[in-house]
Specification:
single chain; mainly beta; Jelly Rolls; 2 domains; 7-stranded antiparallel sheet; 6-stranded antiparallel sheet; 5% helix; disordered N terminus
Length: 604
């Protein structure tokens, strides 16, 4: 079956540039293993209706060209059977592939809520956790399915059925360590507001699945020890779900998972999942908390010994303290950001330190939510799969983006590509007025269209400056290219003690500023304003740190109008007295490049 490439938009990060994975309509969790005959085998939960509708079932497809085209789907479970959902796969050394998934074997028609409100008709997250297997690389699946026994925890016994009916699902791919395989599972203790009202994570360990050929003889153990799974940190909320696991070089397990607290949660196990460190909110290498809503956030091992982390880079107390956090936390999964990770030594063993993030996938429709990704390595290239629940796709990750993430802790070279203005010139004083190079247009007329409508160029620009303010009184100009009508670009101080960018094309005006509290009077700062015409975002990187809103706002990045045509003014740039250096680029720098520019240093 030929996959459809849904777009040829001039930005590889745009979601429509991916190769489509064909499904019936609803598309979830497009996860891939590479089989021993060289194929990509993708399992996906699909159906003709929406998520959770009757007819939801698991299928697999094969690709021999890295996701560009796919074979006809093969049913793991039939469309007219009980709901079968949320599959993950494991390939063992013999080449056999196991697929694990939820199965409503008993055809439970509805489930009670813990709060006594109207029952849910959606029944795709309960019943039996089962598996089938394939010995021909996913071309067919065993006729028999096998149940995995799951130890009952306190949250199960305390549910509305007293543990006689249990709720769970899984999005985390299995890991292998020490001759055993570990399959993730997310237990649900309460069904109610936000659908899953209480949840926690466990691991299902099989110590013989890698070698035992008889599936009926597989042994299973539920971890961690005790009666409680992986939850939020002390004082955190009731939601702890969609755990994603990595194995470090010293054998430690790292797990990261979503909450409704506004932050991702992480923990480490140094005894194969039996016990875990006290969960904590995940941080960047510099100690700042990462922000994340109620969405899948996955970390992956890479073959070079490093890691990648998928998340959405907003949230904080604006989700965690919201009175309707269980529901609003599902929003804003667009764009997607990636961090690079590397191992570091700590007194307790190895841990992962995380870089600052880069945008890797986005959609122009800001309400579209992409999630449930997988990472595939093949032929020295890395690919992401993702779904927005209607179309699943494959995307190749730009090598330069990956290199920037993984070199972010050491890179110190000033970016040269696209540099159009670099002041002051060697041996000269900083001018207070200069000719301003033309900035790229965001839009233009498309003369190839019959209606001569809009052509989105996906271009951007960057202003990079070292500056020092005597005070942060509002209205101080850093850079001003505006003409007498107000058309052009300005960077200026605000009443919040920030620097804002104002973009005006004579038809519309847009503005966004850096985070409050990051600028100090009398201190020299490096400020980079990135105007990215792909996702239409304005980013600020101050002193090598990407603004994320901190405790002052949910988002550190701001959107500008897709109707903004350009930010060109009168052709002259007037520079404020605080400016010590100025670089103007005719492209949007990556965050990693802005950090390297900062590390390269400023004027003496």
């Amino acid at each position: 079956m030929k996959a459809i490439r849904t777009g040829t938009i001039p930005d590889p990060r745009h979601i429509a540039n991916g190769w489509e994975i064909p499904t019936e309509s609803y598309s979830d969790q497009p996860y891939v293993v590479r089989t021993d005959d060289g194929a990509w085998l993708c399992c996906v939960t699909t159906g003709a209706g929406c998520e959770g509708a009757p007819g939801q079932h698991v299928v697999t497809l094969r690709s021999l060209d890295q996701g560009r085209t796919w074979s006809a789907p093969v049913d793991v479970e039939p469309v007219d059977g009980p709901e079968a959902s949320y599959a993950v796969m494991l390939k063992v050394p013999s080449g056999r592939v196991y697929v694990f998934y939820n199965h409503n074997t008993d055809r439970v028609p509805e489930v009670k809520r813990h709060d006594g409100k109207t029952s849910y008709k959606r029944v795709d997250s309960l019943g039996h956790f089962v598996f089938k297997y394939s010995d021909n690389h996913g071309q067919s699946w065993s006729a028999e399915r096998y149940d995995i026994p799951i130890r009952v925890f306190a949250c199960d016994r305390e549910n509305v059925y007293g543990g006689k009916l249990c709720f769970f699902w899984n999005v985390g791919k299995p890991i292998v360590h020490g001759g055993a395989a570990f399959v993730s599972l997310h237990k649900v203790g309460k069904m109610g507001e936000g659908f899953f009202a209480q949840s926690e994570g466990v691991l299902l360990k099989s110590d013989n699945i890698l070698t035992e050929r008889d599936p009926a003889k597989l042994r299973w153990e539920t971890l961690p020890d005790g009666d409680i799974g992986l939850r939020t940190p002390p004082g955190g909320g009731p939601v702890s779900e969609e755990q994603s696991y990595c194995v470090l070089s010293d054998g430690a397990f790292h797990v990261v998972y979503r909450s409704i607290d506004g932050y991702p949660v992480e923990a480490y196990s140094r005894d194969g999942g039996h016990t875990w460190t006290e969960p904590r909110y995940q941080r960047y290498a510099d100690g700042r908390l990462m922000k994340h809503p109620r969405a899948a956030n996955f970390a992956w091992n890479c073959s070079n010994g490093k890691f990648l982390y998928w998340f959405h880079n907003h949230g904080g107390v604006f989700i965690g303290k919201h009175p309707n956090a269980t529901n609003i936390a599902y929003e804003d999964r667009n764009p997607v950001w990636l961090c690079g990770g590397e191992e570091i030594d700590t007194p307790k063993g190895r841990e992962i330190r995380w870089s600052q993030p880069e945008i890797v996938v986005y959609d122009d429709d800001t309400y579209v939510r992409m999630s449930y990704p997988d990472l595939v390595e093949d032929g020295g290239k890395l690919y992401l799969t993702e779904t927005q629940k209607d179309i699943a796709r494959v995307h190749e990750i730009e090598p330069a983006l990956l290199a920037g993430l993984w070199n972010q802790f050491t890179a110190a070279e000033v970016a040269q590509t696209g540099l159009r203005l670099n002041l002051p010139a060697a041996g000269q004083a900083m001018p207070r007025e200069t000719a301003m190079p033309a900035l790229p247009a965001f839009l233009e007329r498309d003369h190839k269209r019959a209606d001569y409508g809009t052509k989105d160029l996906r271009r951007g620009f960057t202003i990079d400056t070292w500056l020092e303010f005597a005070d942060l009184a509002p209205g101080q100009s850093v850079l001003d290219t505006r003409d007498a009508t107000g058309q052009g670009l300005t960077l200026q101080t605000t009443a919040r003690g920030t620097v804002e960018a104002v973009l005006n094309d004579g038809r519309t005006e847009n503005r966004w500023d850096c985070d409050p509290g990051v600028l100090r009077p009398g201190k020299r700062h490096h400020l980079v304003a990135i105007v990215d015409g792909g996702p239409k975002l304005i980013l600020f990187v101050v002193d090598g740190v990407l603004c994320d809103g901190r405790e002052s706002r949910q988002f550190g990045w701001g959107r500008f109008s897709p109707n903004l045509r350009h930010a060109n003014g009168g052709g002259t740039a007037r520079l404020g007295g605080a400016v010590r250096t100025l670089r103007v680029y005719d492209r949007a720098l990556r965050v990693s490049e802005a950090i390297a520019n900062h590390r390269a240093g400023g004027p003496a």
